[in-house]
Known about the structure:
Layout: H1 2-5, H2 13-24, H3 26-44, H4 54-76
Helix pairs in contact: 3-4
Amino acid sequence: xxxxxxxxxxxxxxxxxxxxxxxxxxxxxxxxxxxxxxxxxxxxxxxxxxxxxxxxxxxxxxxxxxxxxxxxxxxxxxxx
Length: 80
C-alpha cells in the first residue's frame, strides 16, 4: 500500500480536462466553498479541548489550515 501512495500518477490530457471541467461545475464549487467555510469556522471558533496539550491543539489547527489551503487550491483551478 505504501508504494501505491508514492507511485507517480500521470493524467492524460483528456483526464486533466475532465478534472478541470468537474471543478468548474457550480455544484462542485459550492461544495468546496462549503468545506472552506467549515474549515474557517473551525479555525476562528477553535479552542483547546479540556486536557488537550498546546502541541496537540496547534497540530489540530495546522491540520485544519492545511485542509483549507487544499480546498483553496482546488477553487483556484479554472477551465481555460
